[in-house]
TrEMBL record:
It catalyses: tRNA(Pro) + L-proline + ATP = L-prolyl-tRNA(Pro) + AMP + diphosphate. It holds the Pfam family HGTP_anticodon. CDD domains: ProRS-INS, ProRS_anticodon_short, ProRS_core_prok. The keyword Disulfide bond does not apply. The lineage of its organism: Bacteria, Bacillati, Bacillota, Bacilli, Bacillales. This is Proline--tRNA ligase. The gene is proS. It is an enzyme of class 6 (ligase). Its main location: cytoplasm.
């Protein structure tokens, strides 16, 4: 492609609203253009890179036995109502209606649609297992879109769905997908980890995320410093064993704590450690109030609370709701003498506390010398807190460390969540009906583009891995008005296109502008035709390493082959 014939609107200044490196560089290098908050156009360079990622995805998905289709983005509300997600998915679901006042959603995912299609076409066990996938634009009404393509309201995603007669069959395909995802992200050149995860609004159990390691990642990965264990912090089990201290239990007392609202305030006021204070929070589990207790130096993990209660939705109660229930503000909540219908669940660490401090359900008052079991009853103890750095690794090997990650892929074992809700299933060899056992497998294609840009750049611009670079070679004649340079460049353009995708900078621009744009765009190899064109000598530069070589035209093909072989390792 001749650069004068394509559209690459590079920018010199860093856009003021671009917070992270990948967002800045994709805008500056002319890959994307913002249309509205969280909505971007993919310009020619980005489209080519996305096509390369999609081709890798297609190849690996087909190796895993999945067939590609394309589903509608506009989905009737009836399907979501049938699955039960129309009201539970949340505000991220973009809802709309047509001129006949029929309600629809712009698809953030396609479990309902694909289940409906397979339900109508596959009734026999002989047609299973079946795995189908698509690559399509998805829509989610993010409250705060940020970081460019990393969290947008419109994005490109690969989603796959598998249908099975048994859990053993699902396990087999799930493992194939794990292998396929590993291959995909390796081929994209990414530094990533596979981690245990929560299924979120999709539902199901046994899920894993594929996380690209990055300091700007929105997720925290908890990993062992002595094994392969890794999990999203939301899902990392706390396996610490707590023992009660061998001390005498003191008499319960209520004291005034004027102006003391936070754990830090209360602990400093009473000269105790935060670990000696019981943190009490009111949460709504499927709209029913529950009191959740953790130690003052720990943080409540709402995902674990949801799982412990087997709830569909869990959220922290607003202060107004808390006052209605307990007649006090947030800073004074406690488990003693609460309404009898309010369930109390507590983290295991709370059960080992003696002579602790907690709120008295009276503003600016707290209890001291609190003993769980003596002064209040706990309905259930469970692992309810976020794991912390330094905690024992759940697999018993080493201790936990943290890293940041960008989620680019997620695989789920859905089970029968959707098939039972939508009465979708098959007849076995005896003619007996069963619901499909399902799996779901997603990759953020546009997110992967961002993750690559975030991992591969320097102070001059982007550095694309060879497998997904929009072009292989950037061919630059320094002066197109020089007939020998122009002629040599045109000949090389014709020759190189037989083996490589070539971007030919035929613009009448200064050499400095061309070189700056070339570094910014970040193609793997630059071939420069300059003053030695008359001698048949060109300059070759490797973007990743900065290595520069002067090469005779007759040796250029062999030189490029060696360079690309080395870059592909």
């Amino acid at each position: 492609m001749k650069q004068s014939m394509t559209f690459i609107p590079t920018l010199r200044a860093v856009p003021s609203d671009a917070e992270i490196k990948s967002h800045q560089l994709l805008l500056r290098a002319g890959f994307i253009k913002q249309i509205a908050s969280g909505i971007y156009s993919y310009l020619p360079l980005a489209k080519r890179a996305l096509d390369n990622i999609e081709n890798i995805v297609r190849e690996e998905m087909e190796k895993a036995g999945a067939a590609e289709l394309l589903l509608p983005a506009l989905q009737p509300a009836e399907l979501w109502q049938e699955s039960g997600r129309w009201h539970t998915y949340g505000d991220e679901l973009m809802r709309l209606h047509d001129r006949h006042d029929r309600h629809f959603a712009l698809g953030p995912t396609h479990e309902e649609v694909i289940t409906s299609i397979v339900k109508d076409a596959v009734q026999s066990y002989k047609r299973l297992p079946l795995t189908l996938f698509q690559i399509q634009t998805k829509y989610r009404d993010e409250k705060r879109p940020r970081f460019g393509l990393l969290r947008g309201r419109e994005f490109i995603m690969k989603d796959a769905y598998s249908f099975h007669t048994s859990h053993e069959s699902l396990d087999e395909v799930y493992q194939k997908m794990h292998v396929a995802y590993t291959n995909i992200f390796k081929r994209c050149g990414l530094n990533f980890r596979s981690v245990l995860a929560d299924s979120g609004a999709i539902g199901g159990k046994d899920t894993q995320e594929f996380m690209v390691l990055s300091e700007i990642g929105e997720d925290t990965i908890a990993y062992s410093d002595q094994s392969d264990y890794a999990a999203n912090i939301e899902m990392a089990d706390v396996c610490q064993v707590y023992e009660k201290p061998d001390v005498a239990e003191k008499e319960l007392k209520k004291i005034k704590t004027p102006g003391q609202k936070t754990i830090v305030d209360v602990s400093e006021f009473l000269s105790v450690k935060p670990s000696e204070v019981i943190k009490s929070l009111v949460m709504l589990a499927d709209e029913e109030p529950v009191m959740v207790l953790v130690r003052g130096d720990h943080e409540v993990n709402d995902i674990k609370v949801k799982n412990a209660l087997n709830a569909k939705m869990v959220e922290f109660a607003e202060e107004e709701k808390t006052k209605e229930l307990l007649k006090c503000s947030f800073g004074s909540i406690g488990p003693i003498q609460i309404p009898s219908e309010m369930k109390i669940i507590a983290d295991h660490a709370v059960g080992a506390m003696v002579n602790a401090v907690c709120g008295a359900n009276e503003d600016e008052h707290h209890y001291i010398n609190v003993v769980p079991g003596r002064d209040f009853a706990v309905d259930e103890y469970a692992d309810l807190r976020f794991i912390q750095e330094g905690d024992p690794s759940p697999d018993g090997k080493g201790t936990i460390r943290f890293a940041r990650g960008i989620e680019v892929g997620h695989i789920f074992k859905l089970g029968t969540k959707y098939s039972e809700a939508m009465s979708a299933g098959f007849l076995d060899e005896n003619g007996k009906p069963h619901p499909y056992i399902m799996g779901c497998y997603g990759i953020g294609v546009s997110r992967t583009l961002t993750a690559v840009a975030e991992q591969f750049n320097d102070e001059r611009g982007l550095i694309w891995p060879v497998n997904i670079a929009p072009y292989d070679v950037h061919l630059i004649p320094i002066n197109m008005k020089d007939s020998e340079q122009a002629s040599c460049a045109e000949q090389l353009y014709d020759e190189l296109q037989a083996e490589y995708d070539v971007l030919f900078d035929d613009r009448n621009e200064r050499a400095g502008v061309k070189f700056n744009d070339s570094d910014l765009i970040g193609l793997p190899v630059r071939v420069t035709v300059g003053k030695r064109a008359s001698e048949g000598i060109v300059e070759v530069k490797v973007r990743k390493t900065g290595e520069m070589l002067e090469v005779h035209r007759g040796d250029l093909s062999a030189t490029l082959q060696n360079i690309f072989k080395a870059l592909s390792v």
